[in-house]
Design brief:
alpha+beta, single chain, six-stranded antiparallel beta sheet, elongated
């Protein structure tokens, strides 16, 4: 059975080569090759032991070029200001030192071409004994764009629906003023006004 923990333990003392992904992962390479998220296996010294095709596509680095490099040469994590996160501020370094797993959707990576890409990032310690970490990440540009479009649609729709509601409220207010209205009519109009006020308050939330 494919087990990253066992692989780390077996390979931790071996020298990293340009064929790292194949030799390091063995039978597990086919599994990681099929994963849509980018995956990096990093040893306790911060060197890349393996990189899957999804990670290659996101970062712009080929597996042969990335193998054996320090992880932050390939996975350049940046904050909201575009500043590269180094030393202990870098989540990968932090997990390597503390063995405490880390997950976020608020960071970015700078690809080999210089493009800044928002990512989901999860860094997990292997075995909890400073054996290394597995870094999982994915491009969330489309997710963020879809969320913005949805928020804009809700805001626009609620604004357009508030406009006729406000007009109807105005007419009902005028209709309620004449004192000669029959009691039943008055009660009916008051109920409709209450309903419209409820709708109006609901749409104001958005």
């Amino acid at each position: 059975m494919f087990n990253l923990k066992n692989i780390f333990n077996e390979k931790s003392g071996e020298k990293v080569s340009k064929n790292t992904s194949s030799s390091f992962l063995g039978d597990g390479k086919a599994i990681l090759d099929a994963v849509d998220d980018g995956v990096l296996a990093v040893d306790q010294k911060g060197n890349i032991l393996a990189i899957n095709p999804a990670a290659e596509q996101i970062t712009g680095w080929s597996g042969s070029d990335a193998a054996g490099l320090v992880f932050n040469s390939v996975l350049k994590i940046t904050n909201n200001d575009g500043a590269e996160m180094l030393d202990i501020s870098n989540p990968v370094n932090r997990v390597l030192r503390t063995n405490e797993n880390f997950t976020t959707r608020d960071l970015f990576i700078k690809t080999q071409s210089g493009k800044i890409t928002p990512i989901f990032l999860a860094v997990n310690s292997i075995g909890g004994s400073n054996s290394g970490v597995v870094v999982v990440f994915r491009d969330i540009s489309k997710e963020l764009s879809d969320n913005r479009e949805q928020a804009e649609f809700i805001s626009t729709a609620s604004h357009e629906m508030r406009t006729p509601v406000a007009s109807i409220e105005g007419y009902l207010g005028l209709a309620l003023n004449p004192p000669q209205l029959m009691l039943v009519q008055n009660l009916f109009l008051k109920k409709r006004t209450k309903t419209l006020n409820t709708l109006d308050n609901y749409f104001k939330i958005y």
